[in-house]
Fold each of these.
Amino acid sequence: MLKKYNEDLYKIRNSIKTCGEKIIMANKALLEKLTDCKEDKENDPKAYLKNLSSILNDIDNEIIKVLALTSPEARDLREVIAYFKITNELLRASQNSRSLIKVLSNNCSEIDQDIIKEYVIPLEKSSIKAFTIAMSMLDIDDVDELKDILHEVLLEEDKADELYSIVEKKIFKSLKDNSDFQKIHYILKAIRRFEKIADRATSIANLVLYIFEGGALERV
């Protein structure tokens, strides 16, 4: 039973890592398009997110089976619970990514290119870095190392928050009297999704640390 349990957890963890990688690749593809405001269909960011919600739902079902059939305790239980909550964070990150791709792919030219290059692209890079680092924690089992990596994620999240604040101020400052305020607000709302993805990265990082340290689960 223990061997089967470990094999099931290994498969679940790998499936989670695969989903995380898809989200990272989608955002990297979007970053490439933002760099030159490309509108071609090559390396479509949306393709990486295809059926991701369904895949995450299947992972949740596998987690429920493990809970029902093995009734894990202590750290084993924390690990299963953490995975169950991580899939929710991945779902939210994928939804944020879809919104970003939809809005920015169609409205890139509406944003001052200097603002994109100086602030929006660095914002996305921080978001991607935070998410990538957080997902890498699934391969680490040393608590001290995990804490160090969590600190890196938090630094990138703070950077994303700060960059979004600057983007917001810069875009509103660049508005002209005849600007479509509603459209600009719509675009800004999408750009904020980068910040939200960094938030999801922090949640994932904290959940991985929870596996080893326990404690209270906090909503981020």
Amino acid sequence: MNRVTLFRTTPRIVFGSGAINQLPSEIKSLGGGKVFLITDKGIVNAGLARKITDLLDNAKIKYSVFDAVEPDPRYEIVEKTLRILREEKTDLVLGLGGGSSIDIAKTTAALGLNRGPVSQYFGIDLIPKAGLPSIIIPTTAGTGSEVTPIAILSDEKEKLKKGIVSSHLFPSIALLDPDLTIGLPPNITASTGMDALIHAIEAYTSVNATSLTDLLAYRAMELLYQNIRAAYANGSNLEARSAMLEGSLLAGMAFANAGVTAVHAFAYPIGAEFHIPHGVANTLMLPHVMRFNLLGNVPKFARIAAAFGIPSAGMTILTMAEKAVEAIERLADDLKVPRHLKEFGIRQEHIPQLAEGVMKVTRLLANNPRTLTLQDAQEIYKAAL
């Protein structure tokens, strides 16, 4: 079917071992006078924030630091960072960390020159004008948020994660250095790596996929699936770490344009209400949503198995599609990522409300390769118990 498509990504991407050393020159290229570094306590305790501030000190670049980003951050955190940004008169935002810090940094930069409560921007294309320049440095592989126009924030009143979607959320520069991921603990390597793989799978099977996003998503699946075990087993394996970071980047570019699907829609309610880390919440739901979805596009799910390196000789495409789901279950077991909702205290009686939460995530369900009903959502949650 002929259609008009649009592909967007971060305008400047710097990638490679030691790339962090280019940070001062990248800041100067954007005309930054005073930098606002946004990160979290874990990054500070790991010594990664110090690497950044040392670079800034040596280059005599002024900066302020906010290091209180929380996991699955509430949108009220952005209200705090905006107050500091304006009080300190900073003019460039630097985000360092995983998806939470990156999303807070992106939103802070985008709203730096826009007024009004943060909550009014939940939705699509509601930010009226460009914000401040920003540089994003991911320390996990990862959310791919450094190349997406999306930020996900928690609304505790509604017990939901909500999205702000705007081209103004693209950072000015994404700076990716696999050296910064070397110290990532195995459990975080596993959950963030699975999150990146899920981005690639969902972008590949989205109804909005294009030839370009398919190229990116397929290569991302190859890189991530074939390197995540090595990165998990030996965190100092720089080759595996670099492949994971590249895979996360490509998956981010793919889903920024094709969109993610029902896996994320199912993950949002359980993440918000039961405080399950995002990558774990996605992994919990992935095989069950894949089994439901594969009838919507059997050939593509079969090609996922091919990207994983599963031989196709003598198999039907339906069998290959099913093998892709089995491979995901084996991978989650190898990485010791939890696979049952009951491990987080979720019980049968929680399912009706959770399913209703899924059906509210219409932005993502519109991308799904198979139409989903409330009853379907309940059955999928039951399968994941």
Amino acid sequence: MNEHGNLPPAVMRANYLKGVVNGAVFTLGEAISNPGLVLSLLIRQLGGSLTLVSLIPVIQSTGYLLPQLLVGGHVQGLPYKMPIYRTFAALRIAAQFAVVIACFYATTIPSYWALTAVLVCYALFNFGGGVTTLSFQDIVAKIIPPAQRGRFFGTRQFYGGLLAFAIGGPFVRWMLSDESPLSFPQNFAIISLVSMLCYATGMLFFAQVKEPAAIQLIPRQGLFDALRSAPAILQANHRYRNFIIVRLCLLIGRLAEPFYIIYVTEQLHLPKSTAGLLIAVSAVAAASSNVLWGRLGDTKGMIWLLRLTGSLAIIPPLMLYASPSIAPLGAIVLLGWLLTSSLIAGISADGVGIASMTFLLEVSPPEQRPLYMGLANTILGIGAVIPIIGGILVNQAGYSLTFIFAALWSLGAIALAGTLQAEPQQRTVP
């Protein structure tokens, strides 16, 4: 019996629905407190430097990815992963609530204390996310058959994109505009509060999923055992190793993203409410492309999807690089140019996300899935520190060189993606 065979069809359908609702509502929460747009503006308004802004993706990536090797070897020996998911989901909600409090009191306490509190709580939120993601991926692998995973992730992001477009973008734009009923920092506090409620709702839905027990279990591994096994895993599984290298390069290629909104508002002199428009357009990208990406990934293969959507990542930094030449054509034309860039970035990021998560599940042995995912994500977490170079580049060489540097890394990633090999397998999509 496979790991999906001990669940009745009605339970599998209910699990699928709960997983989709989880993804849709959680995506709305992520859109509302978008790290590359809203959080970047918050850090800047609290007096944070460009170097601190460059730490946002570092905190996000390392917070998500580094803890996974710490717990991957332990989790693989557990028949059920849901208790770990629920525990760390509660930690994430508490951390996000602390961000709300820090924002509310940002003008009544020294700004550096508010800034420190926001960054520390954001780190805790992402640390908890690293552990919940590891549990989440293993649970999904047990409740969603391989031939349906691309569609599953695509559907989650499709509805999440619709919610972000209809609610998230307009809400953020309203809160950050001159017509907002609240001024700084209360507007950011309300944004953080609504985001927290979305996160809590999404995680509550997934916490109700009925998880089957793992069929194959191997003994738990401590951190040092997992580290000792890492070289052998990387050497033996070349598809797994090459995938990690490509993802690492794509990750580095996004090092300029935290500076997009800062560049738009400080260099191109567009209003801060532009962040809401960019969120809405990125959400349209997700809503319009994710179901297509999921189906194409299920039929043509996740390697094909990774190459296609990864190639699109080259375009946005080049468009930002060219934006000063577009500015003389007028604010409307410039805004349209930037919104197009955001649209392409959203299509690319969501496609790469679907392909990466699904392909990683495919190349990880079921009995060692948490260890394999933890190792891959930890390596990516270590590499995620590299985007701090973006802050140094902006300070030392300016935005233009930073955008070119990012585009070149994405180009290199696509060249390396040619080394990835898809494993032929029978796919039946009901």
Amino acid sequence: MSGDAPDPRNDRPMRAQVLIVDDEPEHAEVMAEALRKPGHVCTIVHGLEPAREEIVHGAFDVVVTDLVMEHEQAGLDVLALVQEHQPDAATILVTAHGDVPTAKAALKGGAYDFIEKPLDLVVFRNLVDRAAETVLLRHRAARLEGQLDAAYGVEGIIGDSAGIRGVINQIRKVAPSTIPVLVTGESGTGKELVAAAIHRLSKRASKRYATFNTAGQSESLLEDQLFGHVRGAYTGADRDREGVFEYADGGTLFLDEIGDMPVSMQPRLLRVLESGEVIRLGSNDPRTVDVRFVSATNRDLRKASEEGAFREDLYFRIRGVEIRIPPLRERRDDIPLLVNHAAGRFAAEMDRPIPTVSEPAMLRLVSYSWPGNVRELFNAVHRMVIACDDDRIEVRDVPEEIRVEDHDDESAGGLGPGSLAGVGLDRLEKEAIRQTLALTGGNREQTAGLLGIGERTLYRKLKEYGLR
């Protein structure tokens, strides 16, 4: 084995329960000592049968096993036990050079990875760290999803911030009713997810859920799509066709970008909402429909109604209840959850292990303003999953426009670009500490690490500058 060298990574790995299986006690103890330094909890056994006992009755995140013990493929027996009794754990095989072909075959059989003797302890520890982070992040995502589903019954809406909890609470309250709902928020915040959740939790869940985007449609096409037509209504209308209101009869209709609907079309929409009647183009006969109406916009409809760009009576009609989705910059606590969820989804699509995200990279993502909201974040994570090496996303993998965004905020009392000349060093130091504390959510350990100072020094500086 090589000598133990400092781990080159600055961020602390996730602590895991590790089972070490090796028939050489000294070798096993050296591996355990290397893993205990970053905080992993290690259990050591010296053969297949004691390993069986631990795997059947214990709980582990990572299992490290020598390949050759009582017999040449004892490690494969350990792998089979792990897959049978603890399928969510990651198994790492330790092999001699001549056993590499067997170890590579084991990867197809479900092993996480293998490492050759003599061990480089830094490489070994990094490998276990990656396996632990993959397993623990997967557990965390599954646990969070289960908690949200159990507590709220809402699929697809990811987050645990106060803002998202408020949105989910509103969804639960309005879903059983038939009151019209207006979903507001910036582009990319997930308004369509809220509409779909309202339908799924309503009494109409077994009926149709129809969506229609009113933006960019000519008035004649929009009228035809919404209300349908009868045969002969216009040239080319060779048969009757129902519109989306009739199509969604008994269910839910989601009209997206309703603020972009032409003013001339708005009275017809108001009539449907008030009377439940639609009249197809070319016909005088009203047809009654029963539709739950949900709409969405990224515009300020109250202001638009005051300016005459949107009918005030229609605005109040569709705004039975308004659900506002906060932009991502107002719920930064949710960003790690969204990043890990997206990374898992895109990794699965590419049939590769779920990458972990280094702490510096995650802090960069949390501090970004995300003008495109969740849609922009998912796009960025997709690019990072493609770009990353060794199943780990580092700062270098973060898209350049996110890495270089200027986060100085003069309006918030911060030091903006070009304002450093003549500023005292104590003010600069205080500002650096203040902004880093905000970035880490007040975590002193992370703040000290990013600033390159000890925690005691940071504590003294906090008292000196009156920061909390």
